[in-house]
Amino acid sequence: CFCRELQTTEYVIVKGSYIRAGDNNGRTVKENEAMNKEAVGAFQKLPMVMPSVDILHSALRKAKMVSPTKGIPNAAKRERNKGAKQLDTLMKELAVKLRTYFENFPDKKVLHPYERSLVELTLGDGRYEEVLARVDTLRKRVVSVGKEQASLCAKSLSKRQAEQQLIEGMNKVEEIFSQGGKAVDDLMNIAKTLRAMPVVDMEIPTLCLVGAPNVGKSSLVRLLSTGKPEICNYPFTTRGILMGHITSSFQNFQACVTDTPGLLRRHDGDRNNLEKLTLAVLSHLPTAVLYVHDLSGQCGTSPSDQQFAIYNEMKERFSDHLWLDVVSKCDLLSDCPVVFVTEDCNFEDVELAKYRRMGPEGALHVSVKSEVGINELKTKVVELLFTQSARI
User: Fold this and answer.
1) In total, how many domains does the chain have?
2) Is residue 313, in this structure, part of any structural domain at all?
3) 217 with 338, same domain?
4) How many CB atoms neighbour CB 63 within 10 A?
5) In terms of domains, do 182 and 238 share one?
6) How many angstroms separate the CA atoms of 314 and 278, rounded?
């Protein structure tokens, strides 16, 4: 059986890696390739894009260094040969760069759903494809004009005409590239933006802090992990996905803590891109949820008609996630909770009244300022992440 296994197992090469033609789980090569395409980490593999000015200057320098083919005695023929070769070199130097960029930026359709959401929400819907299309259009124009000018130079009747045609051809190719060079610069900025996105390891448990704006999520991220998000006393301080790490050396354990923008009470179609980033993390990543509530009245989002409704919606929507509730700023709470003038309170709703006083059932009450409940929170978080790790 061992010999037969050695002799009959077939492998194929997919993107430089050996993959068994039919693995133990019955997946085909195409299925393995599809799985490989949908793995996270595509942003870190993006090519380094040079500024358009640097690409042009490098191509011009290399083109001007090209000499005519040896052994041509006729001066006119020699000049025609040199001009055609220099124009062809300039065209190829520019076109190869553009083609490399176009082919090495992945099609958005094959990205992991989480990374696809980041592209759409960070750059704007359609922006990524539009810039790549402009880069490819520029490549086609450079190739077309370059070939045309090289052909005209090769057909020159005299040395002087060949020299003039070379200068004219160089200027035309340079003009075409300069006019469309903004597409390359836009692609360079896109690459910088995407490479700066936090790297998510699907094998490491992740804790996602969720809640209304300004409820204290960033303060807890600083407390629980290595992450250092900005902390200010106003809503939407967090402008993107911020990550820190928890490491427990004696237990050989590592986890990720994610700070997300706050959520408001409204339909998904009315949400801004910051809120949609939070929903993308919850929808596409295997995260545990640390939901943060602020009943003190300082966050600007009332507990009764806002936070309670947002919490119930998220709890129902992501019921399959591991969940831990935390009431922050508990040092500011009194026996009588704050009542907002704008609150649409139903005092006959027992569940709502209980929430306004104590938060959800089983919620931990913590205070970063007075350090109340912090040690218990850290213990609960590690337990939650160990459970999440077992799930993964």
Assistant:
1) 2
2) yes
3) yes
4) 21
5) no
6) 11
Which residue in 80, 76, 89, 64 sits closest to 146, CA to CA? 89
Q: What are phi and psi of 190, to 5 degrees?
A: -65, -45
Last residue of a domain, one of 196, 220, 239: 196
The tokens describing 136, both together, are 């490819």
Q: What is the pLDDT along the chain (392 residues), one digit of tens a residue?
A: 444 443 434 434 333 333 444 444 444 444 444 444 456 788 888 999 999 999 999 999 999 999 999 988 899 999 999 999 999 999 999 999 999 999 999 999 888 888 898 898 888 889 999 999 999 999 999 999 999 999 999 999 999 999 999 999 999 999 999 999 999 999 999 999 998 887 777 888 888 889 888 888 888 888 887 766 554 443 444 455 667 777 665 454 556 677 778 888 888 888 888 888 888 888 888 889 999 998 887 777 777 668 888 999 999 999 999 999 999 888 887 644 444 434 455 556 788 888 888 888 889 999 888 888 889 998 898 888 888 888 88
What is the pTM assigned to this prediction? 0.73
**Whether 195 contacts 43, CB under 8 Å:** yes
Q: Are residues 92 and 218 in the same domain?
A: no
Residue 19, in any domain of the structure: no
Do the Cβ atoms of 240 and 315 come closer than 8 Å?
no
Domain boundary among 171, 196, 221: 196
Residue whose C-alpha is closest to residue 195's, from 105, 131, 279: 105
> Got the DSSP string for 86-119?
HHHHHHHHHHHHHHHHHHHSPPGGGS-HHHHHHH
Q: Residue 92 belongs to what domain range?
A: 43-196
CATH number of domain containing 311: 3.40.50.300
